[in-house]
Design brief:
flat, two-stranded antiparallel sheet, 82 residues, mainly beta, three-stranded antiparallel β-sheet
Length: 82
């Protein structure tokens, strides 16, 4: 799951459950005193741990979505089976 840290505090209009699921507070890490807000994007990815034929260590490889949503003309649409 791709998580964007230091996300601007946001919310889903009239949907507090989705807001709580998507915007999470991360604990403080070594060297930082304050916590940070993160956004769970719904995208999946892997961070390459070693040097390889397709690039160096630390590269993010997009592997798809965690849900059935696609973007069409700038709008997110939920795919369903008929």
């Amino acid at each position: 799951m791709i998580i964007i840290t230091n996300a601007a505090p946001g919310r889903y209009h009239n949907n507090p459950d989705e807001t709580a699921r998507r915007f999470v507070t991360l604990p403080a890490v070594a060297g930082k005193r304050e916590t940070s807000v993160a956004f769970r994007s719904g995208d999946r990815g892997l961070i390459q741990a070693e040097e390889g034929s397709k690039g160096g260590a630390g590269l993010l490889h997009y592997t798809g979505r965690a849900d059935n949503m696609v973007k069409i003309r700038g709008n997110r649409v939920e795919l369903i089976q008929a």
